[in-house]
Specification:
Structural class: mainly alpha
Radius of gyration: 32 Å
Helix content: over 70%
Number of helices: 3
Largest sheet: none
Oligomer: single chain
Length: about 140
C-alpha cells in the first residue's frame, strides 16, 4: 500500500513539474530567443575573426550553452511526460491484477461451495446465471 502511495506521490509531483516546465520549454518565444542568441554569438565571433580591433563579451560557447540549456529543458519536459504515461500504465496494470485476483478468489469460493454441496448431495441454493448465445 505504501508503495502505491509513493508511486502516486511521484506522479503528482511529476505532473506538477511538467505543467510548469513544458509550456516554458516549448514556448515559441524560447525558440526565437535561442535562435537570436545563437545568431548574435555567431556573428560576434565572425566579426572578431574578420576585424582584429572588434572585441565582444560574447563568444561562440555562450550560444552553445544557451542552446544546450533549452534543449535540456525540452528533453526534461519530455522525460517527465513519459514518466507520467508510464505511471498511468502501471496503475492500470495494478488495477487489472487486483480485479483478476478478486475474480480468482470468487471463483475459488464458488468452487468450494459446489464441492460442499456435492459432498452433502444437496442442490445449490444459488440462482443460475446463463449467458444468452446468439443463434
Amino acid at each position: 500500500m505504501a508503495r502505491r502511495q509513493g508511486r502516486k506521490l511521484r506522479v503528482v509531483i511529476a505532473s506538477a513539474f511538467l505543467r510548469w516546465l513544458a509550456p516554458i520549454a516549448r514556448h515559441p518565444a524560447i525558440s526565437m530567443l535561442t535562435g537570436v542568441g545563437l545568431l548574435i554569438s555567431g556573428v560576434s565571433d565572425l566579426l572578431e575573426d574578420l576585424f582584429t580591433d572588434f572585441e565582444s563579451m560574447l563568444e561562440t560557447y555562450h550560444g552553445l550553452i544557451l542552446f544546450g540549456l533549452v534543449t535540456a529543458l525540452r528533453g526534461l519536459a519530455d522525460a517527465v511526460e513519459g514518466i507520467d504515461w508510464m505511471a498511468k500504465d502501471a496503475e492500470a496494470i495494478e488495477e487489472s491484477e487486483t480485479k483478476r485476483e478478486e475474480a480468482a478468489s470468487d471463483q475459488a469460493a464458488l468452487l468450494d461451495e459446489v464441492r460442499e454441496a456435492e459432498d452433502e448431495h444437496q442442490p445449490i441454493n444459488r440462482p443460475m446465471l446463463f449467458e444468452r448465445v446468439a443463434p
